[in-house]
Write a structure and sequence with these properties.
heterodimer, A: 132 residues, alpha/beta, Rossmann fold, 5 helices, B: 107 residues, mainly alpha, Four Helix Bundle (Hemerythrin (Met), subunit A), elongated
Chain lengths: 132, 107
């Protein structure tokens, strides 16, 4: 039976975008949302409270999205958590590259709130369908 | 009549958008500084990289706050910066001026 999506960790160094996404996901989506502004904070947060799903910005200073994803995949507790990249540049070839890195989906920025929710749910459903 | 939670949601959206506009204004100031520096020293690789980083962040965020045209212009600027060689910078100053003007008109 598919686990319901409840706890989301969103990671973005753009503070206002982080606030906006968290507000929309909590208020409109009914999710429990934790936020992190860096890859390091994301890992610390996830170690303490493993999320059901991670929304991960690609371009961040010091520890970028791909590096953060690799750290998730290298950890026994976190390697099975679905991770969705979010980035401003989403050409088809880039989507393939991000999926090849181990991401479970890619969402283009900017996004509208309802579209973000729809895409998250689609990727969550597909992740669980593939896991069967 | 809207429920308190709807009012809270709307109020928080307004506040987040106001904060975002402030951050974009700060980035426009930085782009102007890079432009001014380029008038005397030309565009260095470091300045280009910084401009590209600013453009990338604007491209990924402006549309979510109602500044779609600014975001689109930022994305085009970023793509040009990625594709262009360091020596081919004739577009850079012009496109940054255009980006700043778009945001100023949007405010």
């Amino acid at each position: 039976m598919k686990k319901p999506l409840r706890d989301i960790l969103i990671v973005d160094d753009e503070a206002d975008l982080l606030r906006l996404a968290q507000l929309c996901l909590e208020t409109l989506g009914g999710f429990h949302v934790a936020s992190a502004a860096t890859g390091r904070q994301a890992l610390d947060c996830a170690f303490a409270n493993p999320p059901d799903l991670v929304l991960l910005d690609v371009m961040m200073p010091v520890m970028d999205g791909p590096t953060t994803l690799a750290a998730f995949r290298a950890d026994a507790r976190l390697k099975g958590v679905p991770v969705i990249f979010m980035t401003a540049r989403v050409r088809a070839i880039e989507v393939d590259d991000y999926l090849a890195m181990g991401a479970d989906g890619v969402i283009a920025k900017p996004y509208a709130a309802d579209d973000l929710l729809r895409q998250i749910r689609e990727i969550w459903d597909r992740f669980h369908a593939d896991a069967v | 009549m809207p429920t308190p939670s709807e009012d809270d949601f709307a109020a928080e959206l307004v506040e987040i958008r106001r904060s975002f506009m402030g951050s974009v204004e700060a980035r426009m100031v930085r782009l102007r500084e890079l432009l001014t520096a380029s008038d005397t020293a030309g565009w260095t690789l470091e300045a280009e990289e910084e401009a590209r980083g600013i453009a990338h962040k604007l491209a990924g965020s402006c549309g979510s706050f109602g500044f779609a045209a600014v975001g689109d212009a930022a994305l085009r600027l970023e793509e040009k910066l990625i594709d262009a060689k360091a020596a081919s910078q004739t577009f850079l100053s012009r496109d940054i001026i255009h980006l700043i003007a778009l945001f100023t008109q949007s405010e």
